[in-house]
Amino acid sequence: MTKEQEAISSAPSETVATPAESAVTPSCTCTSSDTEIPDEAQTPTLLEARSTPRVGHHPVDRLSIHKAATINYNQPVFKELAANLAIQRREILWKAQTLLSREKQKTLGVRRRRGVLDGRAVAVAKQLHKDKLLNDREFNELFPDWHWASSGESLYVLVECNQEAAQLLYDAGLDDVDDVDELGYSPLSLLEIPNKATSAHGRYQTESPPDALATYLSMCEWFKAKGASLNRVSGLTHATPLHHIAGRIGRYLGGSMEERCKSFGSRGPATISRRFANDCADIIKPLSSSILRDIWKDMEHHDLYACPCALGGCLAFNVLINETIKRHRSPTVVSLMAVVLVKKLIDASVPAETRAQQDVRAPIVLRACTFACLGLAHSCRSSSLHRFRRMSGEERRRASDATMDGLVAEFEAKYLELKLPLWDFFTEWWLGRMYELLG
Fold it and tell me: Where are the residues of the annotated region Disordered (predicted)?
């Protein structure tokens, strides 16, 4: 039995339409007084879809689209697929705006929508099917995986970091790159660094971890250039895409340092320092990108995690520092990573950072490094045990740790007193004090 036959046989027990009846183009009219018929002159793009040659009746599920964009990527094939998906979604929108009541259109968010539906297409198709405006065969051909929890996610989630495939979707008419799912997560909030398991074939390939990170950051830049928001809050913790991106960069840097410690640990901190500094330099150079500057400069968008590692919730910069150093407890290693990263970030800043701007970020770095060296457990997104704690609406303060709070206050006062650059303060004062405290 073919996939199409299985989909049809598992559908509700209505009479299956003939092929002629199953065309997506509407063949009926609705005379209900609460239904709005769009004016032809005002909806040329929707009516155009009716005259577009029909797509073949071959169900394409999300897994097939994902494979076509990644491990089996072929540009001409995916271009045709993107065009077909756009045609289908235009037709679904046309049918909804023609046949559904104004109230239902408003609920679905399509009453005044133009262009091509993305993640919302499945919800609209479900309503049309429920109202018997799409028969079972049509519905299952268009969305064979409608029952999947991920069926309402944007198609951009499926292309991962394949920028060429994303551009093909965009050129086909899917131009809302910030389309969110039911939980408010945009494609940029769900984007991950590619790995060889998902990019080993076709023209979409990553040859090494640095190459994978560069591909990821280039994709983030593409989304930003197309209008995706870096600061759209989502979920109960008010995380943003910028928090997510900072976390992925931090994990990469932390993993890099871990590998350096394993490979060169016997050669001493100086060798590890040089290796990690080179790694940071390789990453920061291509990251003269606006994404890195956004992470460094954003002092406004805190999430709602309650954790002693951050004051009033984490900024994206908190996340970057925490994810970079959280695998380590040695004050030497922790301070080295923080100092190198901060110095590279400052060097990459445009315009150049002033001392006052650096002083604003110094407490964040001091708190994160002290937290790591004391071996405290995160209750934010950096938790390795998924022990999360969310701030209440009235609390707006972080979970506290008296010992660490006292130490951080001491460090901040000394930093302001000595007026040293942050990296010199770590090596000349903080490092010795932390070893003294740890015995």
Answer: 1-59
Angle at CA 218, nearest 5°, toward 216 and 222? 115
| 276 SS3 class | helix
Question: Residue ranges per domain, the chain?
Answer: 3-187, 230-438
Rounded-to-integer distance, Cα 411 and Cα 396, Å: 24
Instruction: Let me know how long the chain is.
Output: 439
Tokens of 345: 């970030």
Q: Give the bridge partners for 101, in sequence order.
A: 35
Give CA separation, 267 vs 258, 260, 273, 297, 307, in Å.
14, 11, 11, 36, 36
pLDDT digits (tens, 9 = 90+) for 376-420: 888 888 876 655 555 444 444 445 678 888 999 999 999 999 999
User: Rounded to whole angstroms, how far apart are CA atoms 320 and 287?
Assistant: 14
Residue type, 290: S
Range with lowest mean pLDDT among 64-78, 201-215, 309-323, 357-371: 201-215
On whether the CB atoms of residues 157 and 190 are closer than 8 A, the answer is yes
Q: 3-class SS at 198?
A: helix
Rounded to whole angstroms, the Cα distance separating 52 from 227 reads 29
What is the per-residue DSSP string for 102-128? Answer: HHHHHHHT-TT--S---TTHHHHHHHH
CB-count burial class (<10 Å; 0-12, 13-18, 19+) for 215 = buried
- What element of type H or E holds 43? none
For 19, counting Cβ atoms within 10 Å of its Cβ (0-12 exposed, 13-18 middle, 19+ buried), the class is: exposed
CA–CA distance, 135 with 125 (Å, rounded to integer): 10
Of 340, 362, 363, nearest in space to 353 by CA: 362
